[in-house]
């Protein structure tokens, strides 16, 4: 999982990075709002934004994110507890708000809960498990190491399980902001489908894909 962190307090910034990287997350860190703004479409699965930072505040960056991505979790962190600031954060689409000072455990829990990854192993079915930190798909006890793009795609679909993930969102996250043709995305989906012993990845015609819950999947 790739996270964008915007926090201009150097000590707190480093503390958050250390904790999240120890949990297997990839963190791109910024202390300047404009620099973070210029990078928001580089394929992140979560954003952690401070409000009061140099150049451009976190609320403006939140607005930009929601222009092209309605679903990716955005956590606002701030020492400001004015009701209007908190209300505006939610009005513009933040997923959660964390008041400073806070325990790093709180931030970690919010990230894992919002992305539906509250444990190391995701059970797709009783016989199929995904170890997302190790990029391993285990089927009937046999481990299959996924490629980076396969892992990112499965992460993305599982994080939004039951919801349609658009082609644009897949391109942004899986190709990490680089261009990907529809054919390339479809080819990657086909490869992943062959590795999962259930017909769980549904095509939303001309829109994207969704990962159905196990009870709604058909055996292949």
Quick structural summary:
The protein has 220 residues and is α/β, with parallel strands linked by helices. It has helices spanning 10-22, 33-37, 58-68, 83-91, 104-114, 148-159, 167-174, 182-195, and strands at residues 2-6, 26-30, 46-50, 74-78, 96-99, 121-125, 128-131, 136-139, 142-145, 165-166, 198-199, 201-204, 208-211, 218-219.
Overall description:
The protein is of the alpha/beta class. The protein folds into two domains: 2-114, Rossmann fold (3-Layer(aba) Sandwich); 121-219, Arc Repressor Mutant, subunit A (Orthogonal Bundle). It is built from eight helices and 14 strands. Strands 2-1-3-4-5 form a five-stranded parallel β-sheet, sandwiched between helices. The protein has a four-stranded antiparallel β-sheet with strand order 6-7-8-9, with no helix packed on it. Strands 10-13-12 form a three-stranded antiparallel β-sheet. α6 (148-159) crosses α8 (182-195).
